[in-house]
Amino acid sequence: MRILIKVLLFPVAAALSLTTALFRFMCRFSRGLLSVASGLMFIAALLGLVLPVAKLPAANYAVMFALAFLISPFGLRWRTGCWAGWTVSTSRYALFDTIHHF
Predict the structure, then answer these.
(1) pTM exceeds 0.90 for this model
(2) Hey, where are the domains in the chain?
(3) What is the pLDDT of residue 102?
């Protein structure tokens, strides 16, 4: 009976392991890529505010600052992708704990 349950739960455990690996990769990749994009957007907004070359309203630069924060590692990226990876990883560990203690 114990082996049957382990065999039946193996595909679920494998899928959770692959999903966790995918989320971790996406979180690390997006951290590097979006950090650079966030930094460039922040510098562009700061330069546009200090040196008004394009003569845009200040509200446009405020929007750029807000978007730079949202795509930064402290903005929405962590609260969505990394949170989902953490949730899948936690459920994976709970399933492994259930399988090994069954």
Answers:
(1) no
(2) 2-100
(3) 65
